[in-house]
């Protein structure tokens, strides 16, 4: 419900952050920890050793926390507790000075397998043009939406008439389909398969079969099929397939707005070329004809992009208000496309120079090209060495960050629109550093990134719907809002905290009461109105799937073929004696607390930048609640720019670009 006045707001905030008389709080990965793996929790307002109590009431480990350090993202002094010696599978309580802080600590093997499956299966729930049957979708079964494949070519395409375009994934909480965002999303999922094919050849999560394809490739193909329909005969690729405005708060089958193919862009075309080149080599063992189709499409798209280097999508046409995904510099997309085509074909004419020390987001994919160059030494030679050094330099900074505060990679400036995807992508970056070196500090910092997303954060919540002791219940996601099902669709990573407050406003405008706390890492609300913190998006779920999926595959004994020796691990449950043999283990009496051992936090990893930023506009939704008077219907958001370096910022009602401490208008002119 919306807050009506300041007094109620104060009471609500007090209730939200209320603590018992014993105020200590332990923040953990709510999904669990691997028996033989690094384990860490964050502790606030505690004084004393941390005791870990098993189901029999025995204190089996006691640890002295690390000295507190201040985390400016949440305004808290935090102690980190390394409890890696707790290696017996089971469920534990956490105590300080005899007070139980929580009783939901889990140690188990195959820790993240369910998260991996759910985060990828969510793409099935986002399928357009297909009915979701109960045998696959369970209680979230629904009728097909957007089944009319005929879409009109908007005059912004420079053409007229119609095309046939169906399938694909809905982009986020709305029903648009966008080539640019599909690009980085599909790339991330393709790379997950390419790095761990043996693991994903057998992992299944109950989706409709697509021939003999593994489930991951079957899901990806559903979106590739749509992307292929968006290529014009000249090789250029249309920018997006949407209605002229965002739909109301309705199920897909009830959205009967006319669909338009809108724009044609250089960046989108190069994104398409990169994905299709990559897909062609991955699908070739399964379907050579389909692989050939993808490769031919990639080549045509790359040629068109070279011939039209500056056909940029800079703003929506005047009659269009759906997500824009603007881009005025498609060079990074060109580098990625040329890199993928060179890897796939061996044709050196596609080879491009350039790499980056920055984590990618949809508007800057140079980091993806950096991954590819660093992991293909024989093809890229000196460029590969340069790319590797950039990955390691950023990763080392990340490791250092994760030694302090909440023990996570996130810095205060990373709490931008879609901050959770920044955390996930930082974890993916760290894993690439681990692949290249085999150094455990990078792996541990990557695990910490996942810990943050699954509960080790100042909001004490898992940001994945349906998973964890506390998780989002009211994401900004039209199917989850309008399906009359209490539980949201599982496996969705919400955008996460960020202090911009773009969705703060009056209830009459379908906006949220002010949920900002003054701290970047707690500026979040689990309400449907919050498209700025609680929406979901395919490009946010993909790095979550990669991060959790790669960690599971590594611990199942797999590693990318280019990886350094020792990257693969062996996830074997520990014996019941494993804790008792450690120096900080406790004898059988639950009342005896030993002289504690010092928690040693491994020297870990790396450096980087902030994640995606995004500006947004909203309009009224003229629909009534289908879930009663307390349901809050989602506002209509504009998915415009989620940026990183440079960042988009607001000053009053003005939008500007900030880079290196300087401000520029949207035409690139210096304003401050």
Walkthrough of the structure:
The chain has 672 residues and is an alpha+beta fold. The protein has 15 helices and 19 strands. The strands form 5 sheets. Strands 8-7-3-4-14 form a 5-stranded mixed sheet, with no helix packed on it. Helix 8 runs antiparallel to helix 9. The N terminus is likely disordered.
List the SSEs and their pairings.
Elements: H1 6-16, E1 25-27, E2 40-44, E3 50-53, E4 59-64, E5 69-71, E6 76-82, E7 90-96, E8 99-107, H2 113-125, H3 134-137, E9 150-153, E10 162-164, E11 177-178, H4 179-195, H5 197-202, H6 215-229, E12 238-242, E13 260-264, H7 266-283, H8 288-307, H9 331-345, H10 366-374, H11 377-401, H12 419-437, H13 440-453, H14 478-482, H15 538-555, E14 597-598, E15 618-619, E16 636-637, E17 647-651, E18 654-659, E19 662-664
Parallel strand pairs: 4-14, 9-13
Antiparallel strand pairs: 1-2, 2-6, 3-4, 3-7, 5-6, 7-8, 9-10, 11-12, 12-13, 15-16, 17-18, 18-19
Q: In a few lines, what is going on in this structure?
A:
This protein is α+β, with helices and mostly antiparallel strands. The chain has 15 helices and 19 strands.
Q: Within the largest sheet, what's the order of strands?
A: 8-7-3-4-14
Percentage of residues in DSSP E strands: 5-15%
Largest sheet: 5 strands, mixed
Question: Poorly predicted ranges (pLDDT <50, ≥5 residues)?
Answer: 1-21, 574-644, 648-656
Shape label: globular
Number of helices: 15
Helix residue percentage: 25-40%
Average per-residue pLDDT, rounded, comes to 86
Distance between the termini: 41 Å
Rg over C-alpha atoms, rounded to the nearest angstrom: 24 Å
Could you give the count of β-strands? 19
Which structural class fits the helix and strand makeup?
alpha+beta
């Amino acid at each position: 419900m919306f807050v009506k006045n300041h007094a109620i707001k104060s009471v609500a905030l007090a209730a939200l952050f209320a603590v018992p008389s014993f105020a200590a709080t332990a923040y953990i990965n709510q999904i669990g920890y691997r028996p033989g793996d690094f384990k860490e929790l964050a502790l606030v307002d505690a004084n004393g050793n941390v005791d870990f109590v098993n189901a029999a009431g025995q204190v089996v480990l006691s640890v002295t926390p690390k000295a507190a350090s201040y985390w400016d993202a949440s305004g808290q002094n935090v102690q980190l507790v390394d409890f890696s010696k707790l290696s017996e599978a089971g469920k534990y309580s956490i105590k300080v000075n005899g007070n139980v802080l929580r009783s939901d600590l889990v140690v188990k093997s195959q820790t993240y397998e369910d998260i991996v499956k759910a985060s990828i299966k969510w793409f099935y729930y986002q399928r357009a043009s297909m009915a979701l049957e109960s045998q696959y979708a369970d209680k979230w079964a629904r009728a097909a939406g957007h089944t009319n494949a005929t879409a009109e070519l908007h005059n912004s395409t420079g053409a007229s008439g119609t095309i046939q375009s169906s399938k694909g994934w809905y982009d986020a909480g709305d029903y648009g389909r966008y080539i640019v965002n599909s690009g980085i999303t599909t790339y991330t999922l393709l790379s997950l398969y390419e790095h761990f094919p043996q693991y994903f050849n057998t992992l299944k999560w109950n989706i409709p079969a697509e021939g003999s394809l593994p489930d991951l490739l079957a899901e990806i193909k559903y979106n590739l099929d749509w992307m292929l329909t968006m290529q014009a005969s000249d090789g250029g690729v249309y920018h997006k397939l949407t209605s002229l405005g965002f739909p109301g708060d309705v199920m897909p089958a009830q959205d009967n707005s006319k669909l338009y193919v809108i724009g044609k862009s250089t960046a989108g075309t190069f994104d398409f070329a990169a994905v299709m080149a990559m897909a062609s080599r991955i699908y070739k063992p399964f379907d050579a004809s389909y692989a050939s189709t993808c490769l031919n499409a990639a080549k045509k798209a790359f040629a068109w992009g070279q011939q039209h280097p500056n056909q940029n999508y800079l703003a929506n046409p005047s009659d269009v208000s759906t997500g824009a995904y603007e881009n005025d510099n498609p060079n990074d997309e060109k580098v990625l496309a040329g890199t993928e085509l060179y890897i796939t074909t061996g044709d050196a004419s596609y080879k491009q120079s350039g790499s980056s020390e920055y984590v990618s987001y949809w508007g800057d994919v140079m980091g993806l090209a950096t991954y590819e160059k660093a992991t293909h030494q024989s093809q890229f030679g000196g460029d590969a060495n340069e790319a590797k050094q950039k990955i390691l330099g950023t990763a080392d900074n990340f490791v250092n960050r994760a030694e302090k505060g909440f023990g996570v990679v996130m810095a205060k400036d990373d709490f931008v629109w879609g901050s959770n995807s920044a955390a996930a992508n930082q974890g993916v970056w760290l894993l690439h550093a681990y692949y290249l070196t085999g150094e455990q500090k990078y792996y541990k910092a990557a695990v910490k990134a996942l810990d943050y997303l699954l509960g080790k954060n100042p909001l004490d919540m898992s940001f994945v719907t349906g998973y964890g002791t506390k998780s989002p219940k009211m994401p900004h996601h039209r199917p989850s809002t309008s399906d009359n099902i209490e539980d949201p669709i599982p496996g969705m990573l919400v955008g996460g905290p960020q202090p911009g407050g773009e969705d703060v406003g009056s209830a009459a405008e379908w906006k949220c009461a002010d949920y900002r706390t003054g701290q970047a890492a707690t500026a979040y609300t689990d309400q449907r109105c919050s498209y700025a913190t609680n929406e979901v998006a395919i490009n946010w779920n993909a790095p979550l799937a990669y991060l959790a999926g790669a960690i599971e595959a590594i611990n199942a004994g797999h590693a990318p073929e280019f990886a350094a020796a020792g990257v693969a691990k062996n996830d074997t449950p520990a014996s019941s004696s494993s804790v008792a043999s450690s120096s900080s283990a406790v004898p059988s009496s639950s009342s005896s607390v030993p002289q504690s051992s010092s928690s040693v936090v491994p020297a870990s990893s790396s450096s980087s930048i902030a994640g995606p930023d995004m500006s947004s506009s909203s309009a009224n939704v003229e629909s009534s609640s289908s879930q009663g008077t307390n349901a809050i219907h989602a506002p209509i958001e504009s998915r415009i720019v989620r940026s990183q370096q440079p960042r988009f910022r607001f000053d009053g009602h003005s939008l500007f670009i900030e880079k290196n401490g300087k401000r520029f208008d949207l035409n690139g002119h210096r304003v401050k």
